[in-house]
């Protein structure tokens, strides 16, 4: 990096001070830097959630263990679930979408750079808020699903932190969803029609639609929970006519689309990886797109399969059961398309491809147990046992987490400018893959033998000892895998060489930019001539994209600190909400924080922020 | 297009609100936000309908609601929707003064609506002891109608901010999208109110 | 973004005329909305109708009114509104499922 491009705040420097880097990240609106923030934040919370998982497995290592207390165990399982879903898996995916999607469609940034920055700060401070509960009298302990009345009657402030923290983080996610949708619709490069978009962009698009329609239900659910806990309303208070089932519906109306929010982006990036490393175009591109849409559509109509044992009656249960099983069809289409993509291809197996190959059997097992738990009569047996734990870890770890690892190995050069070390990558894969199956495969049988989920201890000589021991041992292997990965990341950052623009002989547009790309991505917007546009240029052209416009001034958004200040306002206000039940003085924090946030909005609304231009001369100067 | 052309255009194009990429993005982004809001209000409506008979011995909707006040509120909000259409009509004709005038009327009608709503709430609380905490019905009622009222309040603050900010400098390519998105938001508030008066008040009266 | 020298893009009498006609249609839709509001309130105030039928009618009137808002006041009938329409329809579908779930499956 001899010359850093001079945007408004960073001058031309060799090495910048830590303060300058920090300020740069606090004020950035660049999609790649926002992606870095998502990835760093997501990785931090992933490690935190991982530590919580390890504590769970240590507690269940031997019968009647007392490694942690029962109350603390409840906090740990709640925070493990909440952290992994909301603060690890989603941000890591949003980070990759932020980094790659604009590059894949030939855009210079997202549609709303300001909102993008606001979204990432809401996620980070929302996550910090949630984890603050550890230091303020105990974390939430009502399970990640926070069912009422357990959540409304849980003592202390744990569940308050859950409600407010998720409210803040969720608002950020909703903004990202809208942002991605508008970006994909309005900012595609010339020639990039919808049916020429890479599949990762397609799944980003569909996932954003799911975010847009699923998160408001969670927002309302959390509001009702906040009102009941903090302001004495009676939504879930049966004595005053409330109904606790409302929470379950609202939570799962959000919660089921949420699991597709977690898996669809991963389907997209696996499609990219299979096609790149098989040197073939994706088999059945069109059917992949429509299968994604179908999954999203059906995903909204199956939420009540989480509630079979609530007692909705056989008719409702049957409808939701059939709808759930129907999702296996589009998912099956995808699995077979991936297999057919590899069929006859020039398959190259490296660490990114290993994760993709490991994903197919793992996720298929998760899908198969999905059909089992979707069967109503049988579900009465599986419900709330370790069978369900095994099922959803097979989909979320075997799908989403493996996908995140695959995507990180694949796109690391594009995001951080280094290629990850292959040997370390393979060690990561094999330890994690073996550990994962050790941990969770045995849990199917533990569940079938009747071990309930969320229990603090199990008794000796009930056939559960060996299984739990093996499961805990697997967690050790998974931990080693993650540690090797982190070592790998640090190692290549310090010792690795700068990556080439196109280290994998890629097919899609992101590989035409430098690794990492300049903050304006392209000097001239490229012209897209078809699906797998770079591959077309490689086989039919000169291997370079044809520019769609003459070299001219580039319009870029200005950096701003306002998103951070606005988020800080909500953060302070959140504490006010939580503690006003104890002391009315906390209303100062509540209204003060809101005032800061609203003032920040007002400043944003009143100032003229029309961005800045990178002139032609500057662009030419860099070509040297 | 340079900065200067966006802020001080010599002549505005035919649809100034959608002439720039930023304008197009804002337009689409707001529509999608409204799509999400649909689910947000649906969740509140669903909770309300589920809890509307859970009065816990307190007053029921038949006893509480008076149709005259609600009708007045409805007409006010509906008219404000029309006046903001007028404002956008003048924006398309590049008549900034008339646009501001009609937006002003829109804001006043919105404030009037909000005043009546506050009166209505205090009336229920003082006369009937019907509060946010008295029953599940009360919680659901104040949440649903209050969320809508909160949207109206936010809209009024937003409107005042952009009206005052741009009062002296007229229409340009930078602020035209802002007025347009406000107007879409305002219509949407009216859409929600149509369902509020139908589901909460009229159906509450029918039983 | 090219310079705006294209005369087709400027405001002409043609556009003014078009805007005016558009406004006329909007006033008519406003009148329709007021009428449907009055009918709805009248039905309830007079109590002439059977409960189930009244609720049915109220819903039809509400949906009609909202259609006027969307298609005329918010211009959804015009060109360039395909994506907004898709999202509003999808949102309405999700909203329908949500309300249906909450209303039908909470008490039984």
Provide key terms for this protein:
heterotrimer, B: 207 residues, mainly alpha, Four Helix Bundle (Hemerythrin (Met), subunit A), 7 helices, elongated, C: 108 residues, 2 domains
The overall number of domains of chain A is: 1
Which CATH class of chain A is shown?
Answer: Mainly Alpha
Structural shape of chain B: elongated
- The helical percent of chain A reads 55-70%
Structural class of chain A: mainly alpha
H/E series of chain A: HHHHHHHHHHHHHHHHHEHHEH
Structural class of chain B: mainly alpha
CATH architecture of chain A: Up-down Bundle
Rounded mean pLDDT score of chain B: 92
The greatest interface here is: B-C, 56 and 55 residues
Annotated CATH architecture of chain B: Up-down Bundle
> How many beta strands in the DSSP annotation of chain B?
0
Largest sheet of chain B: none
Number of helices of chain B: 7
CATH-derived topology of chain B: Four Helix Bundle (Hemerythrin (Met), subunit A)
Protein described:
Chain B: It holds the Pfam family COX3. Chain B: The chain crosses the membrane at residues 28-49, 69-89, 101-119, 139-164, 185-204. Chain B: It is found in: Cell membrane. Chain B: Keywords: Cell membrane, Membrane, Transmembrane, Transmembrane helix. Chain B: Residues 28-205 form the Heme-copper oxidase subunit III family profile domain. Chain C: This is DUF2768 family protein. The complex is a heterotrimer of chains A (624), B (207) and C (108). Chain A is mainly α and 624 residues long. Chain A has a single domain (20-560, 609-623), classed as Cytochrome c oxidase-like, subunit I domain (Cytochrome C Oxidase, Chain A, Up-down Bundle). Chain A has 20 helices and two strands. In chain A, strands 1-2 form a two-stranded antiparallel ribbon. The longest helix of chain A has 36 residues, at 70-105. With 207 residues, chain B is an all-alpha fold. Chain B has one domain: Cytochrome c oxidase, subunit III, four-helix bundle (Four Helix Bundle (Hemerythrin (Met), subunit A), Up-down Bundle), CATH 1.20.120. Helices cover 78% and strands 0% of the residues of chain B. Chain B contains seven helices and no strands. Chain C is built from three helices and no strands. The N and C termini of chain C lie far apart (59 Å). In chain C, helix 1 packs antiparallel against helix 2 (51-73). The longest helix of chain C is centred in the first third of the chain and has 34 residues, at 13-46. Chain C is flat, with a radius of gyration of 20 Å. By secondary structure, chain C is mainly α. Residues 1-7 of chain C have low confidence and may be disordered. Classes of the chains: A mainly alpha (624), B mainly alpha (207), C mainly alpha (108). Chains in contact: A-B, A-C, B-C. Chains B and C meet through helix 2, helix 4 and helix 7 of B and helix 1, helix 2 and helix 3 of C.
């Amino acid at each position: 990096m001899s010359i850093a491009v001079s945007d408004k705040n960073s001058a031309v420097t060799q090495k910048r001070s830590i303060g300058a880097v920090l300020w740069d990240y606090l004020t950035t609106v660049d999609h790649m830097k926002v992606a870095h923030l998502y990835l760093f934040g997501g990785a931090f919370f992933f490690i935190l959630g991982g530590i919580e998982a390890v504590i769970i497995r240590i507690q269940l290592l031997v019968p009647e263990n007392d490694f942690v207390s029962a109350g603390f165990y409840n906090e740990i399982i709640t925070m493990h679930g909440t952290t992994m879903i909301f603060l690890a898996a989603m941000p890591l995916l949003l980070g990759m979408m932020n980094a790659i999607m604009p590059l894949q469609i030939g855009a210079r940034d997202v549609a709303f750079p300001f909102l993008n920055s606001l979204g990432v700060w809401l996620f980070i401070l929302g996550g910090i808020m949630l984890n603050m509960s550890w230091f303020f009298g105990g974390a939430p302990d009502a399970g990640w699903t926070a069912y009422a009345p357990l959540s409304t009657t849980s003592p202390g402030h744990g569940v308050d932190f859950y409600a407010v923290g998720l409210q803040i983080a969720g608002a950020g996610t909703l903004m990202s969803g809208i942002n991605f949708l508008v970006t994909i619709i309005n900012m595609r490069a010339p020639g990039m029609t919808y049916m020429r978009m890479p599949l990762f962009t397609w799944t980003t698009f569909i996932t954003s639609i799911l975010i847009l329609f699923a998160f408001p239900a969670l927002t309302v659910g959390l509001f009702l929970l906040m009102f009941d806990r903090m302001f004495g309303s009676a939504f879930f208070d049966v004595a005053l006519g409330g109904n606790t089932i409302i929470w379950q519906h609202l939570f799962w109306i959000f919660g089921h689309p949420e699991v597709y929010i977690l898996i669809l982006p991963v389907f997209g990036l696996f499609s990219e990886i299979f096609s790149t490393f098989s040197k073939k175009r994706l088999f059945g591109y069109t059917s992949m797109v429509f299968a994604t849409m179908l999954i999203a559509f059906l995903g909204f109509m199956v939420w009540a399969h989480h509630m079979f044992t609530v007692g909705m009656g056989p008719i409702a249960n049957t409808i939701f059961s059939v709808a759930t099983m129907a999702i296996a069809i589009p998912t099956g289409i995808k699995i077979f398309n991936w297999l057919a993509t590899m069929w006859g291809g020039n398959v190259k197996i490296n660490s990114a491809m290993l994760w993709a190959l490991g994903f197919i059997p793992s996720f298929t097992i998760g899908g198969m147990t999905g059909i089992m738990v979707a069967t109503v009569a049988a579900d009465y047996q599986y419900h709330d046992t370790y069978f369900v734990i095994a099922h959803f870890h097979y989909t979320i770890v075997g799908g989403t987490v493996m996908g995140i690892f695959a995507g990180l190995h694949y796109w690391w050069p594009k995001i951080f400018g280094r290629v990850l070390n292959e040997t370390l990558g393979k060690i990561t894969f094999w330890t994690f893959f073996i550990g994962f199956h050790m941990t969770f495969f045995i849990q199917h049988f533990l569940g079938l033998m009747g071990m309930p989920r969320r229990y603090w201890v199990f008794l000796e000589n009930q056939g559960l000892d060996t299984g739990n021991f093996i499961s805990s041992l697997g967690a050790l292997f998974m931990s080693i895998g993650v540690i090797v990965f982190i070592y790998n990341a640090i190692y290549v950052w310090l010792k690795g060489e700068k990556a080439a623009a196109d280290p994998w002989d890629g097919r899609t547009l992101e590989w035409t930019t430098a690794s990492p790309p300049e903050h304006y991505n392209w000097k001239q917007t490229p012209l897209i001539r078809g699906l797998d546009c770079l591959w077309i240029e490689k086989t039919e052209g000169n291997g370079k994209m044809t520019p769609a416009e003459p070299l001219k001034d580039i319009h870029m958004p200005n950096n701003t600190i306002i998103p951070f200040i606005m988020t800080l306002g909500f953060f302070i206000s959140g504490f006010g909400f939580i503690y006003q039940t104890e002391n009315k003085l906390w209303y100062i924090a509540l209204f003060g924080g809101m005032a800061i946030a609203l003032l920040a909005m007002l400043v944003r609304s009143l100032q003229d922020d029309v961005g800045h231009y990178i002139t032609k001369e500057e662009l030419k100067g860099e070509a040297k | 297009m340079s900065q200067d052309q966006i802020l001080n255009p010599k002549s505005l194009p035919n649809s100034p609100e959608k002439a720039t990429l930023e304008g197009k993005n804002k337009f689409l982004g707001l529509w999608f936000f409204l799509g999400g809001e649909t689910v947000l209000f649906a969740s509140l409506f669903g909770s309300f309908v589920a809890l509307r008979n859970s009065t816990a011995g307190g007053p029921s909707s038949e006893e509480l609601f008076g149709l005259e006040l609600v009708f007045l509120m409805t007409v006010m909000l509906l008219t404000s929707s029309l006046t903001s259409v007028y404002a956008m009509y003048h924006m398309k004709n590049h008549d900034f003064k008339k646009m501001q005038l009609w937006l002003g009327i829109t804001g006043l009608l919105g404030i009037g609506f909000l005043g009546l709503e506050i009166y209505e709430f205090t009336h229920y609380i003082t006369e009937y002891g019907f509060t946010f905490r008295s029953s599940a019905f009360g919680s659901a009622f104040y949440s649903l109608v209050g969320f809508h009222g909160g949207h109206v309040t936010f809209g009024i603050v937003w409107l005042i901010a952009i009206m005052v900010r741009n009062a002296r400098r007229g229409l340009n390519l930078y602020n035209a999208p802002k007025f347009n998105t406000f107007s879409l938001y305002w219509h949407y508030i009216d859409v929600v109110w149509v369902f509020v008066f139908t589901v909460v008040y009229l159906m509450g009266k029918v039983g | 973004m090219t310079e705006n020298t294209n005369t087709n893009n400027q405001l002409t009498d043609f556009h003014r005329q078009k805007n005016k006609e558009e406004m006329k249609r909007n006033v008519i839709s406003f009148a329709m909305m007021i009428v449907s509001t009055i009918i709805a309130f009248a039905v309830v105030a007079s109590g002439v109708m059977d409960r189930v039928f009244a609720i049915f009618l109220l819903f039809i009137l509400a949906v009609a009114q909202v259609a006027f808002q969307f298609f005329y006041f918010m211009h959804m009938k015009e060109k360039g509104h395909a994506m907004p329409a898709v999202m509003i329809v999808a949102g309405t579908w999700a909203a329908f499922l949500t309300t249906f779930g909450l209303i039908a499956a909470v008490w039984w």
